[in-house]
Design brief:
Blueprint: E1 2-3, E2 10-11, H1 54-80, H2 88-106, H3 111-130, H4 138-153, H5 159-162, H6 165-188, H7 194-217, H8 226-253, H9 262-294
Antiparallel strand pairs: 1-2
Helix pairs in contact: 1-2, 2-3, 3-4, 4-6, 6-7, 7-8, 8-9
């Protein structure tokens, strides 16, 4: 560390002149400027770039040890009790529980990755439980519901797809229709109520979503009226449920009428009237405000 001999100001390393009095800095011939070696000669890797953290690695190792002990304990308990033929379900459940814990600590802590891996693990667990007798029944419906939920909740979080809301809406609608058709085939053995009930109700929902997109998302506006959006969504859901009741009543009884959705239809009509009145009042206020500015 050097100081100016004229004014005493602290000098930076390698300075040739004093920054205050501009006195020339002359190092004695016996002194040479030496650069200090860095504490870490090689750059440290980025945090979390590879490998597991120490805590996560410890949890994974502990989980594997407990899994090994638990599997042996359950296996020998079932064997000595004469129930070895029924040991698959408890052994499989222990294994999948360990897999889920390991995924939680070893996979990247992002919403999409965690939900994807856990959805896959739960689906495998349900299929394994249902297929313990070498046949699949109820697990197909639950796994389909998990897959549909993944499409609706996880796909919008992916950056590339988040830029295309219309494409996401179409994918979600098509996946929902495929799942409903599968339930119809699974329960009845054929497409019975899918075309006369599910398709028309889906068209009503699609029309409502299209109107919502035109009303709120087509315009490049920075302020999104959240209350209007919530009321519009409630109106669309109420109208869709009313349409479902209408088409299901016609399918079951052969008459056009509403059985349980009258209150929903009334609520939807009131919401539409309210939103229309709010929109008109805003336009009228903006009109007179703009007129006053030009006066």
């Amino acid at each position: 560390m050097a100081y100016c001999i004229q004014c005493g100001v602290k000098l930076e390393d390698g300075a040739k002149k004093c920054p205050l009095c501009h006195t020339e800095v002359v190092l004695p011939t016996s002194m040479t400027e030496q650069k200090k070696d860095p504490l870490f000669p090689e750059p440290m890797p980025a945090k979390g770039s590879s490998g597991l953290k120490k805590t996560s690695k410890g949890v994974v190792e502990l989980t594997l040890a407990l899994l090994f002990i638990s599997e042996l304990t359950v296996f020998f308990s079932m064997w000595f009790s004469g129930n070895i033929a029924y040991s698959f379900i408890p052994l499989f459940c222990l294994f999948m529980a360990a897999v889920i814990i390991i995924i939680a600590f070893s996979a990247k802590h992002t919403f999409a990755i965690q939900v994807s891996f856990h959805s896959l693990a739960v689906s495998v667990l349900l299929l394994g439980l249902d297929g313990s007798d070498w046949s699949l029944s109820w697990s197909l419906v639950t796994v389909g519901a998990i897959f549909l939920t993944w499409i609706i909740l996880v796909l919008p979080t992916m950056p590339k797809l988040a830029k295309h809301p219309v494409l996401l809406g179409c994918i979600s609608l098509v996946a929902s229709l495929v799942y409903v058709a599968f339930i119809n085939i699974f329960g009845s053995g054929a497409l019975t109520w899918f075309f006369p009930v599910a398709i028309p109700a889906s068209l009503v929902l699609l029309l409502g979503l299209g109107l919502m997109y035109v009303r709120f998302f087509r315009k490049n506006t920075t302020r999104l009226p959240l209350a209007d959006l919530v009321f519009f969504i409630l109106a669309v859901i109420s109208l869709t449920m009313s349409a479902l009741d209408l088409f299901s009543t016609h399918y079951l009884l052969g008459i056009w009428g509403l059985r349980w959705s009258v209150s929903l239809l009334v609520a939807a009509i009131l919401l539409v009237i309210f939103l229309t009145a709010v929109t008109m009042s805003r336009r009228i206020r903006r009109y007179f405000t703009s007129q006053n500015k030009h006066v």
